[in-house]
Amino acid sequence: MAFDFDFDLLRELTEASGVPGYEDRVRDRVRTVFEGAVDEVRTDSMGNVIGTVEGSGDYEVAVAAHMDEIGFMVKHVTDDGFLKVDALGGWDARVLRAQRVRVHTQQGDLTGVIGSVPPHTLSEEERETEDAVEDVVIDLGREADEVEEIVAVGDLVTMEQSTVKMGDTVTGKALDDRVCLFAMLESARELEDPEATVHFCATVQEEVGLRGAQALGVDVDPDLAVALDVTIASDTAGVAEDKQVTRLGEGTAVKLKDGSVITNPKVTRRLRDVAEAEGIEHQLEVLPSGGTDTAAFQKANGAKPVGAISIPTRYLHTVTETAHGDDIRSTIDLLTAFLASEDGGHDYSL
C-alpha cells in the first residue's frame, strides 16, 4: 500500500522548479490538474491558484498547500565567472556544500555546482569556520565572459535532484511542500458532490513569510480553513523521542501547534474523530517552531477557525527530504473524508 497514489504526478511536482515569487512551472502543472477536477480555476495577481468545487450549501472551506520551494537569487557575478546568491527561504548552509544546482536564465537552465574547498588545503582555523549562505559560490564550468553573457542578476537558482522511491518512502527535493500540494490535488480529484463549497488553494511565497496565503485569506474569506504542510520527522538515530515530533509510517499528522499557530481545538477534535471513524492512521503533531499557511488564514479578514494536516518528513530543507508512502495516502484520505463531512453544521466557535 506504500505507493497507492499517482507517483508520476508527485515526481513531476517535486522535480519542477519554483522558488518564492517565481512558481510558474509548478503553477502551470497545478492548473492542468485542476482543469479536470474542479468547477472553476482562477489565479490572482500574486500567483496563487484557486480551484473551486461548488457545494450544494452555503458553507465554504479553504484548503491550502504552498507551491514554492527554498532556493536562491543571483545577486552578483564575479570577475572570474562565479555566482554569488541571496537566499530565498531558510537554508542550513551545512547541507549546501558540493551540491548540484540549476541556474534558471533567460537563455535556459544551466547546471552548476556549489563549490567546496578540498580539506587538504584548509588550515585548522578554516576547518572550524561555520558555513554561511552568504559564502556560497556557484561554479558553472564556463569562462567568465560566457557567464557574464548568459547569467544576470535576478536569475534564480534551485537544487538539482530527482525524486525516487526508496523502500517504502519517497525521497527528493521540494517535498516541502509539493508532497502536500500533491495530496491536496489528489483530494480535489477524489472529492465527490460535497455539501460545502471547497476552495483548493495552491499558495505562493510561503517560505518567505506566508505571504500568498495571507493575501488569499482575505480574497477567499472562508468559514473554515485547513492547511497542509510537511512536518519534522526526526525519528532517526541519536534523536531523543521527545524531539522527534512525528515518525514515518505512523500516519498523517494532525497539528496541535507550531511556532505560528495553535489550531482550533474543535477543528482538531473533528479531524481526529473523522480519522478514527474512517480507520485512517494518524498521529499528533506538536512542533516547537516553524510556521505554515494555517496561521495566515487564521488572521486574515477576521478570526477564522483553522486546522492543519501534516505529512511527516525527514531531512527537511535538504535535497533528500523523505516521506513514507502510507503517510501520503493517509493524508489524502483524511483530507477527503473531512471535506466530505463538512456541511456547515459543526460549531467551531470557542
UniProtKB/TrEMBL annotation:
<feature type="binding site">
    <location>
        <position position="229"/>
    </location>
    <ligand>
        <name>Zn(2+) 1</name>
    </ligand>
</feature>
<dbReference type="GO" id="GO:0046872">
    <property type="term" value="F:metal ion binding"/>
</dbReference>
<keyword id="KW-0479">Metal-binding</keyword>
<feature type="binding site">
    <location>
        <position position="176"/>
    </location>
    <ligand>
        <name>Zn(2+) 2</name>
    </ligand>
</feature>
<dbReference type="InterPro" id="IPR008007">
    <property type="entry name" value="Peptidase_M42"/>
</dbReference>
<feature type="binding site">
    <location>
        <position position="66"/>
    </location>
    <ligand>
        <name>Zn(2+) 1</name>
    </ligand>
</feature>
<keyword id="KW-0645">Protease</keyword>
<comment type="similarity">
    <text>Belongs to the peptidase M42 family.</text>
</comment>
<feature type="binding site">
    <location>
        <position position="317"/>
    </location>
    <ligand>
        <name>Zn(2+) 2</name>
    </ligand>
</feature>
<keyword id="KW-0378">Hydrolase</keyword>
<dbReference type="GO" id="GO:0004177">
    <property type="term" value="F:aminopeptidase activity"/>
</dbReference>
<feature type="binding site">
    <location>
        <position position="176"/>
    </location>
    <ligand>
        <name>Zn(2+) 1</name>
    </ligand>
</feature>
<dbReference type="Pfam" id="PF05343">
    <property type="entry name" value="Peptidase_M42"/>
</dbReference>
<dbReference type="InterPro" id="IPR051464">
    <property type="entry name" value="Peptidase_M42_aminopept"/>
</dbReference>
<feature type="active site" description="Proton acceptor">
    <location>
        <position position="206"/>
    </location>
</feature>
<feature type="region of interest" description="Disordered">
    <location>
        <begin position="110"/>
        <end position="130"/>
    </location>
</feature>
<dbReference type="GO" id="GO:0006508">
    <property type="term" value="P:proteolysis"/>
</dbReference>
<dbReference type="InterPro" id="IPR023367">
    <property type="entry name" value="Peptidase_M42_dom2"/>
</dbReference>
<feature type="binding site">
    <location>
        <position position="207"/>
    </location>
    <ligand>
        <name>Zn(2+) 2</name>
    </ligand>
</feature>
<protein>
    <submittedName>
        <fullName>M42 family metallopeptidase</fullName>
    </submittedName>
</protein>
<keyword id="KW-0031">Aminopeptidase</keyword>
